[in-house]
Amino acid sequence: MTSPPPSAFTASTLAVDQQRRRRRTRLLLGGAAAVVLACLALWAWAGSGGTSGGDDRPAPAPQAPDAVRRTAETPPRSVEGRAAVRYREEIRQVGATADAPGAWATERTFAKGFVNTVKGFSLTRANATDAKGDRPAWTLTFPGPLCATTRHVSAAGWTAVAYAGERVDPGQSLSAPCDRLAVIDLDTGKKRWETRLGTADAPAGNVNVTMTDGAVIVAGDQGSAAYDTTHGTRLWTRSDRGTCTDTGFAGGGPALLALARCGDSAAPRFRVERVDAHTGRTTWTYRVGDGIESVHLASARPAVIAVAAGDVEVSHLIPLDEHGRARGTIRLADTHTPTGCDRPFSAVVESCPSVVVGTRQLFLPVDDDIVAFGLATGRSGRRFASPTGAMTPLEMNGDQLIAYREGSGFTPSAVVSLDPATGKERPLLLFGANPDDLAGTDDPTRDDILYEHGRLFFAATSAYGPIDKGHRGELSNVAVGIESVAR
User: Fold this and answer.
1) Using the 8-state DSSP alphabet, how is residue 170 labeled?
2) Residue 335: its pLDDT value, please?
3) Which of 49, 96, 285, 438 could tie 442 with a disulfide, CB 3.0–4.6 Å?
4) Which residues partner with 485 through β-bridges?
């Protein structure tokens, strides 16, 4: 008997079983363990040169509501972690897989996509000691499945999602017409606006969505288009590109990068373009060399692309300057291949979440550590060694790097702030191990890990049904959130 074909809602029982065996587990302390945690926190703080004072960096200038958010993180009053959110779903079909695209957080809300819904969980209540963190504050339901999301959020707490405008059978999700686009308010669960996609529509799995300051950009099989973030007014479209097709965009601030695929599908050539998000005009073009299997947009500003030369795995990172010229090329060894660049059945090209780019350096995992590489030279620099489990870079916070580090044994898992100039480490959150609390959500090669307003979130991109009928009724973790006990 053969397995069913891959889809957004079905997977073979063998694949599900293999994925479950690969899941790692760890999380939250309680009772006497909290005392141990507090001691560890004090030890780590003192050992890293931390002080009890607040962050003395100047506050960022206020942002426009439709600008892509840039959060300035500050250390919490206590590094001891507690549960903030736990979102679980039951899938009753044996061997089934449900898509869970998109995960976002504001200061007030954590939101998670699941099949054809987005659910928002309040972060303003004391939900660590009761069941409120398990119940959504709001649910936004779409006619058909979500088919594209962006990780970006505006300063006002808005994000963009694409979805099918009609209901489809679960097994047909990948072929559903991805013909609707909406901007939603994550704090209220309301649509700010929605529109039918014209030149940018395409079957699910072939659509890419991103955001820049003031604009939402969509790419699909038939072309690409941009819309004003606040009102949904279409800004521009482009569909006749000769032998080239826009396969996706990367945003995240004032800059926009486009990835175009050109020529024969059997031997494609790639171009990376800087595009004005509000006019669609191309300001420069970088032509990727021949023999490249795939290209990913790791960062729009500074511009960094990830390429697979002669294989499906990313082999080089190429920083580009403000004129679209290659700077130092970073050649990657087997021990530090970026994770998550190419997720199955996804058109996302703004990927490689394990590559975090600063103004002068980028950071990526090497074995269990994190290593800095110069954008101008391509040479490796400071190495942050992990004393316990693997470290994953999450984001830049000014000139500091925020990273997640897995725990080991009696050593808690942690969110830490790393200083590239001095090599010093400062703990932000510490939390211990409780089997199954994170199961299915903490694999950085396929799941989302977010840090926002002092909270850490683990979010699965898929949830699984039972292995057999005897396991019906079990709940799959979709997302878990952790916050400081002293907020």
Assistant:
1) G
2) 66
3) 438
4) none
Residue with tokens 């959500």: 441
- Residue 56, C-beta contacts closer than 8 angstroms, at least 6 positions apart: none
Nearest to 63 by CA among 172, 152, 163: 152
Alpha-carbon distance of 19 to 16, in angstroms, equals 5
Please say if the pLDDT value at position 18 is more than 60.
no
The string of pLDDT tens digits covering residues 313-344 is 889 999 999 999 999 899 988 767 777 787 66
Cα 38 to Cα 49: distance, rounded to the nearest angstrom: 17
402 touches 451 (CB < 8 A)? yes
Residue 364 bridge partners (DSSP): 371
CA separation for the pair 120, 140 (Å, rounded): 8
Residue 365 — very low, low, confident or very high, per pLDDT cuts 50/70/90? very high
237 burial (CB, 10 Å; 0-12 / 13-18 / 19+) is: middle
Cα-flanking dihedrals φ and ψ of residue 331, to 5°? -90, 130
Tell me which residue of 127, 20, 159, 162 sits closest to 450, measured CA to CA: 159
